[in-house]
Specification:
Blueprint (H helix, E strand, L loop, with lengths): L1 H22 L5 H15 L5 E8 L4 E8 L7 E3 L3 H9 L3 E3 L17 E9 L2 E10 L7 H14 L7
Helix pairs in contact: 1-2, 1-4
Bound molecules: methionine sulfoxide.
The site of methionine sulfoxide has 15 residues, from β1, α3 and β6.
Length: about 160
């Protein structure tokens, strides 16, 4: 058990370092976000869909940005709608252990069993969201939340404040 935790810490630590390198690199911002999605999806076996939604504070909508995984029909989401929209409204991370038990949920396919949505904040406003779907039930634990909130902190500099 302890070894598993150590290994998780090691993997997440390496991914944070790599995320930082990508964020500071030479690609344009969209390319950087795409590389980070690809990196997370290929490195963590239960991260089956990884994507960013861009927030528009004026129209209160989320627009799909770079993602890695199957195409989704949810390219625009109003604040308050689905898990993403609720996280944008509440400005807090949502961890959904079992999506089948959620009433305010936008399905991206029958294989998705659990989801985490982490707001990316700048100057107290949600500028984007990091959304991850898993085909495993109850996939996201506290170490995932802590790790992904750090990823959100690293990438926040890639978005314009309100
Ligand atoms: N399930 C999300 C919609 C986005 S997809 O997961 C890519 C939601 O309920 O907001």
């Amino acid at each position: 058990m302890e070894n598993t935790q150590k290994e998780t810490r090691r993997v997440f630590g390496n991914l944070l370092a790599e995320t930082g390198r990508i964020a500071a690199g030479a690609q344009d911002n969209s390319g950087k976000l795409q590389s980070i999605c690809d990196l997370l999806r290929k490195s963590v076996p239960y991260y089956d869909w990884v994507g960013f939604y861009m927030a528009d504070a004026v129209t209160k909508t989320l627009r799909l940005g770079p993602f890695s995984g199957a195409p989704t029909q949810h390219t625009r989401i109003a604040f308050g709608q689905g898990i993403c929209g609720q996280a944008a409204e509440r400005k807090e991370t949502f961890v959904v252990r079992d999506v089948s038990r959620e009433s305010n949920y936008l399905s991206c396919g029958i294989h998705v069993k659990s989801e985490i949505v982490v707001p990316v904040m700048r100057e107290g406003e949600v500028v984007a969201e990091l959304d991850i779907d898993s085909h495993t039930c109850d996939a996201f634990t506290d170490p995932d939340r802590v790790f992904l909130e750090k990823v959100a902190g690293i990438v926040s500099c890639l978005f314009r404040a309100g």
